[in-house]
Fold this sequence. Notes:
The complex is a heterodimer of chains A (227) and B (354). Chain A is α/β, with parallel strands linked by helices. Helix content of chain A is 33%, strand content 27%. Chain A has one domain: 3-Layer(aba) Sandwich (Rossmann fold). Chain A is built from seven helices and ten strands. In chain A, β1 and β2 form a beta hairpin. In chain A, 43% of the residues are buried. Chain B is mainly alpha-helical and 354 residues long. Chain B has two domains: 1-167; 170-354. Chain B has helices at residues 5-34, 42-78, 89-93, 99-124, 132-158, 169-172, 180-185, 189-218, 228-266, 285-306, 318-347. In chain B, α1 packs antiparallel against α2 (42-78), α4 crosses α10 and α10 packs antiparallel against α11. Chain B is flat and about 65 Å long. Classes of the chains: A alpha/beta (227), B mainly alpha (354). Chains A and B meet through β1, β4 and α2 of A and α2 of B.
Amino acid sequence: MIEFSVVTKVFNQGQPNECQALREVSLTLERGGITVFKGPSGSGKTTLLTLVGCLARPTSGRIKLDGRLLSNLPERFLTEVRRHTFGFVFQQFNLIRGLTVLENVMLPAYPLGRPYRELSDAAREWLDRFGLGGKIANPVEWLSGGEAQRTALARALINDPAVLIADEPTANLDSALSREVLALLGELAAQGRTVLISSHDPLVFEAIPVNRVIELHDGQIAGDRRC
Amino acid sequence: MLIMPAIVALQLVAFGVTGTVLLASGFAWRILRRWNIESGSELQLRLERRTYLVSTLVGFALGAELLSLLLFVHTAESLSSQFVGAMCATGVLNVNAFGFPALLLKIAVFFLAALWLTLNRIDNRGYDYPLVRLKYGLLLAIAPLTVVELAVQTGYFLGLEPEVITSCCGSLFGAGGRGVASELAGLSPWPTLILFYGTGGLIVASGGWLLSTLTADSSFPHPQPLSRGERGAEGQLAGMLFAGISLLGFAIAIAAIIAALSPYVYENPNHHCPFCLLKAGYDYIGYALYLPLFAATTAGLGAGTVAPFRHIVSLQVVVPDEVRRLTWLALGGFSLFYGLATWLMVRSNLILLG
């Protein structure tokens, strides 16, 4: 369970370009299912997900994961939590150019020191499952948008995270590829993972069984609907 | 004042350390007054983020402070050829009234800095900043000492006039003189060595006890099971005892070096100087003696100081590991020191105890 308690996030605080991305947000996200954060650009969706995923710290307020304070953890502990609990899928895929598909998928697991063979087998298994078994040796530059996003999904899952965070996962994909990626996310949720998606793509709500929709506006929660 | 690279380096370190510690003191004061881990306020989060930067900077500064003690002693020793009457570091430290106070202050700050670094290391390994108030409280205690050390050291170096005729170690560490050094030099070797080896035995016994409390914590079934509270109290007592005996061991070791060990090394019953041991003529044996002694005392002090914190939930795994490591380090350092000291006495041609 992830709990936000009066969380505020301000960028460039005290500067002329100060931006209050989140304003005193309080919410509780249960384990399992799919939660979609929707809202217009600049509403704070991505900021909220980066705070959930320990990629940033709040300016004020507290975030708890399973009752344990997350937002005040020293960096080394935060890194551990990030590595073991969260998997990330980004809008721009963020694959490392010059590396093969397999290497990209294995990359987040290197710091954990798993045996190479075991790691390689796990990466191949995910890639096979996502229909990329024949492309493991290809450089990622050769992949189509859908393939790149599926590779990114495999990479997010290599450390077997309990929570999968997908920030606008379909923004760079056409409808067919979007459905493909969303179907995979739906499968992962069905297997018990918590899937958090930020999106304003209506296709997300049609393609997969969403459990909860949280609407953000100007950094505040404007709506919270359970489906 | 003599201008030489080592003196410039020592002054730069002293200014750097004092500046860093003073700047960090403001932050430390805010930590002591405003820190509240339960709060999600903007101030609390800012303090949490800033503590990394401040403790890292202070860590580097205090690390430099540890090294500066070695450089200070080495510099004093190397300057002995520059002053008429000086045969070793003793004469150089005696050139003006600030020399020995500067050395004693540096030793005091050395131990406090090492203690701070140990606390910082432990605190950084707890997920909820468990020792943050303690370590910044200690920093506030160290701050005035670094200022005084800077002032005294600066006074000392500014007063290093080459035309000053100083006195050699024979007059300061002579058994017939006055003052603490002469008192120590005048100690009878027999009781001093009995005390020296007796303290060594106490160090081993208290270290062993401290290690056994750690084993009792982690082993099950315990031959005579103690309650959690009893085990904690036993560990705390063992820790404090080991820290105290390590410090006592350090003081007695210095006394034994002056009263008994030095004459054996120099093979001269009237030569008690603890600084001539650092000279090339005696194979720099002083460095081999003092380095393990200081390291062991620091480790013993650290082990004893952090041992009581094992009841803190976030440190329940970290503290026993760290105490075990530091205790073994202390026991190893003291063993090296005692072993070398014994070997120096055994191989000597001097017969002091007859």
